[in-house]
Amino acid sequence: MKGLLTAAVTLVACALIASGCGEAKKAAATPVVKPRPKPTCAYRAGWQKLANRIHAPVYCPSWLPDPLTGQIGGKWNNINSVSPDRSYLESFVWQETGGGAAGGELHVNLRGYPGRTTIPTCRTGGNDSRNVRCFADPGRGISVVGIPTRLYTVNQDADAWHALLLWHRGGTLYTLSEHVAPPLTFDHVVRYLKRELAALVLIEPTA
Description:
The chain is of the alpha+beta class. 25% of the residues lie in helices and 36% in strands. It has three helices and eleven strands. It has helices spanning 2-29, 44-54, 186-198, and strands at 58-61, 77-82, 88-96, 104-113, 121-123, 131-133, 135-144, 147-155, 162-169, 172-179, 200-203. The strands form three sheets. It has a seven-stranded antiparallel β-sheet with strand order 2-3-4-10-9-8-7, with helices on one face. A two-stranded antiparallel ribbon has the order 1-11. The chain has a two-stranded antiparallel ribbon with strand order 5-6. A hairpin with a 7-residue loop joins β5 (121-123) and β6. The longest helix is centred in the N-terminal third of the chain and has 28 residues, at 2-29. It is globular.
């Protein structure tokens, strides 16, 4: 009897050990998914000032392709414009005119149209100047970090020759665009736009 009891205890112990080893192996085989770091706006003061000026939220870019930075009034900020209707355009550009492999351009625009959800109208140039939609030829949807956007490929004014993402939030139309120009291909620009979209930080007005 004592021998049977000892054998039973031994079997239970072995089963527990096997179970524990199995769980350990399962845990070791499961990759640890680290949470995505929350983007931060390195130049918040300028974007906060813009949000307060237009009395509407704005999106601060926490990442732009090197050497660009999202600093309003900084070295790469070539357009800082607010229209009477409170719509804004923030443009960041780098250009290299050396030619050959050294030449190229990086140009990113961010726009917002507070209280407007329809696409605005732009004027074409040349002898056949006419009114057209500023953003046209919508393509596939692109959604990153909960922001559902639509890709537009025929755009006007400062967004000409840009690939552009358009979305709505709280009754406001927003866009993020980048110039398709050397050294970047269209596919490369779209990859950059996705990364830039994921790195946007929403700045609410405080005044």
